């Protein structure tokens, strides 16, 4: 068969026998045919071998590699881990907690790894039982109005659609939330409930951390009960190893090309010199500040209006979106840390992960200088968490100071109380702790390893892209207060923005930023009435809303009632955007303007009081006009008081009981007719 099939592949061979004389060379023909068959067989053998080698090539090129890379199971098997801690984190706290839990594992003879769900295929959870003594822990923050964080969105979508059998999976969940928000810890609660529905086994109860209270204490309290439950479940014991374990090693660069050194970029090296869209959290746009003016006429506070130029950035935004800004720490704080620790802040260094398999090679962009790290990458103004105090304690040469640090990092009631009063309530940042503990002088590289990342700050955009397509406006108040120790603490971002003075081509007025999409949107139909409630800087998105409604009116569209309830302290002091609002009212766009001046009379008047005063009109707009309600500002008091006021109005004019009124307002929220953009 081989001889019959092969000649067509090489016609030169069949052509070679044509001159032969059949009658006179018969015996030679036999020899020739045998030789030919042998030759063809040999040719076929080598050709066949080549064909058989072809399937081996994909193996060499490792076509399946991307799938393996996205499999946390394969990674755990390869590195001998049995505990994986996933984090859904928007500001870095959940990631920090996940890292702490994964480091804890070694104390119980287990090995853990922290993992970003965005980087892995979470359907592999069904395979975790392949690993002995395996456990999945989820540190899940809730963002906005009960939403998952950006990096947990795909995981959330998968959970909603999944019909996987997770009966072999053992899990535990710790949620990070804030009780001032309507949907407290919604993401943590959902993950905990959904994993159980899919058959997974919960080995410890859901933890609910409250950032409005003491999130750190909530986490520690949960953690100290979580590990004994793990030990009992797997039949393991604590090894007693409480030693400090470094996650990164220091490399000092004495001879380095400065073009390879990070100077504040968030992702790609030299991205601030060579800007390329699209712009996002890892690739912010450097926007020029074109305007920075003080909005208030008096008082001790500084309220400001900034305009950022986004020309040629291809950045698009809509009214109601948020602008994220990457600030820089005050240089005087950075210098003081350097002086106290006796460090040359301009030393170029890298902190390299000792775990070579980790996706996170460095705690922040490296190589860089200590000055850059402390200025752009690390949070040096917030009170440090207990794990930082625990790790730093070993460097205190005074026994009393070392004991105090260890006590505050412990789970004992006395230690928790000391941490709460001495660190949290006194608002002691790392510099204050170093100043108040003269014997505590840690190596600066270990301090840089321990401090959390400096996070972007979000502001509600105070402009409409229909009117200002090439600029984004910010309305903010500088944060400044005196602590119990007599120190003056300043908000990082607002004080940094305050000093951004517009200049001609001046680098000092550049702001790294990107836009984060929001669900805070004007109604699809311009004719739908809107009721906007926003005291203080909560007015920001409503300036954008009113600008857009004015633009729509200019386009000949029918625009519905536009009602604003605004509040400030004093009419002559901090009435923000007074001229603009008066103009909008004169033009007939802003159909109702109600302003509460809380301190201009003996009794304080707030926006909810004005809502009650106009309750009949409010009910008519909501019930008959199908108005959309928007609330922006303080979550702790204002948003809650406003919501309670709506319950009262609905109950009175809708002839409903209190539970029915609550249900009515909740349904408005579900339908997107009652929207919140609040902060605490």
Tags for this model:
37% helix; alpha/beta; single chain; Rossmann fold; NADPH-cytochrome p450 Reductase, Chain A, domain 3; NADP; globular; Elongation Factor Tu (Ef-tu), domain 3; six-stranded antiparallel sheet; 4 domains
Uncertain segments of ≥5 residues (pLDDT<50)?
Answer: 1-26, 43-68
Structural class designation: alpha/beta
What's the rounded overall pLDDT mean? Answer: 89
Supply the CATH architecture of the largest domain.
3-Layer(aba) Sandwich
Helix proportion range: 25-40%
Strand content: 15-25%
User: What is the tally of beta strands?
Assistant: 23
CATH superfamily of the largest domain: Flavodoxin domain
Give me the Rg, rounded. 33 Å
The third-level CATH topology of the largest domain is Rossmann fold
CATH hierarchy, class of the largest domain: Alpha Beta
- Taken together, the total number of domains comes to 4
Largest sheet: 7 strands, mixed
Net shape: globular
What separation lies between the terminal Cα atoms? 83 Å
Q: If helices are DSSP runs of H or I spanning 4 or more residues, what is the number of helices? A: 24
Domain FAD-binding FR-type: 282-523
EC number: 1.6.2.4
Keywords: Endoplasmic reticulum, FAD, Flavoprotein, FMN, Membrane, NADP, Oxidoreductase, Transmembrane, Transmembrane helix
Domain Flavodoxin-like: 83-227
Please explain how this structure is put together.
With 680 residues, the protein is an alpha/beta fold. Helix 21 (607-613) packs parallel to helix 23. Strands 1, 2, 3, 4, 5, 6 and 7 form a 7-stranded mixed β-sheet that branches. It is built from 24 helices and 23 strands. The protein has 4 domains: 72-234, Flavodoxin domain (Rossmann fold), CATH 3.40.50.360; 276-327 and 456-518, Beta Barrel (Elongation Factor Tu (Ef-tu), domain 3), CATH 2.40.30; 328-454, NADPH-cytochrome p450 Reductase, Chain A, domain 3 (Up-down Bundle), CATH 1.20.990.10; 530-678, 3-Layer(aba) Sandwich (Rossmann fold), CATH 3.40.50. Helix content is 37%, strand content 18%.
